[in-house]
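Form 7-S
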Amino acid sequence: MSDLVWLSMAELGRMIATKEISPVDVVRAHLDRIAALDARLRAFITVCADGALEAARAAETDLMTGKIAGPLHGVPWAPKDLYATKGIRTTGGSKILAESVPSEDATVVSRLRQAGAVLLG
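Output:
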């Protein structure tokens, strides 16, 4: 398993900005860890692998062309399932909301997306 999953968001952001590592490689490392452990840990209700890889590829393209949104550009993250995520099932851990798909993001989710952070799930 990759050591990338143990680095802080700040470290990842710095390494991505200096092109020491690729946002795609970082996201893949995190998705691999989720795939390997989540069946036992059950930390994720919804994993957005395709969307995360797409966002990581877009971040990498932006970085190569000099478009940097900020220090979290290309850095993966995962909000608690209490925060609304537009177009992604957000349950709050409740059976009543098991199929809830918000039409807009919570403020924190929106701001992190604008900063270029990559939503894992």
